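Lab notes, practical 5.
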Amino acid sequence: MKIMCNACGRELRNENGILMEDAFEAVKEWGYFSKKDLEVHKFVICEECYDRMVGGFAIPVSKSDKKEAM
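Output from the prediction step:
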């Protein structure tokens, strides 16, 4: 299955069905009091586009380290 970055349009590297690079995946289920009531939005962005996006935030992204990967 092809996975594309929604920001730059690049296809993420995939070998034999295994994603060979990580990406940011987001799902937002809009509730009431928005202009998108009950819509579900999904997107994937590559690491380069993620870095560019969060680099422009007024408040930096909160970061922490994990002890092990699952």
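Observations recorded by the TA: The chain has a mean pLDDT of 95. The longest strand covers residues 23-29.
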